[in-house]
Write a structure and sequence with these properties.
InterPro entries: Ubiquitin-like_domsf. This is Mask protein. By secondary structure, the protein is of the alpha+beta class. It folds into two domains: about 70 residues, Ubiquitin-like (UB roll); about 45 residues, no CATH class. It is built from four helices and five strands. It has a five-stranded mixed β-sheet. α2 packs antiparallel against α3. The longest helix is centred in the middle third of the chain and has 13 residues.
Amino acid sequence: MLHIWKASGEELAAVKLEDFREVRDLKRHLQGLCGLPRFRQRLVSKSLGILEDDDTLDSPMDLQLVLLDFASASQEQVDSVISAAKAGHVTLGLRFVLFLSCRCKKRGVFEAAAEVVLIAPDPETPNLKP
């Protein structure tokens, strides 16, 4: 069994080891329980430290779940990301993540995503990096 504990000391879940091959799979399951996507979760083992998403789960253990908050961004940082995105200096995927993380606190997710689409250069242009 894998036992996952919240910071409060309360057990969040006890799951069968054989149901989860990698840490990534377990985090996807935990997303439904804690409400945060896997990239905002860290699983820590007393003996192994912080587990990476591609680590294999091959023995029973107790895991501490740490939930990460978004870092706040200054208006200068937000403007810098927007300028870089408009100039095509970041890839579309990175542009989307950076922009949403900076803007979603001030606007709705859909409005921020719409802005990303509007400032994204055409994929056929040579300056768009894969």
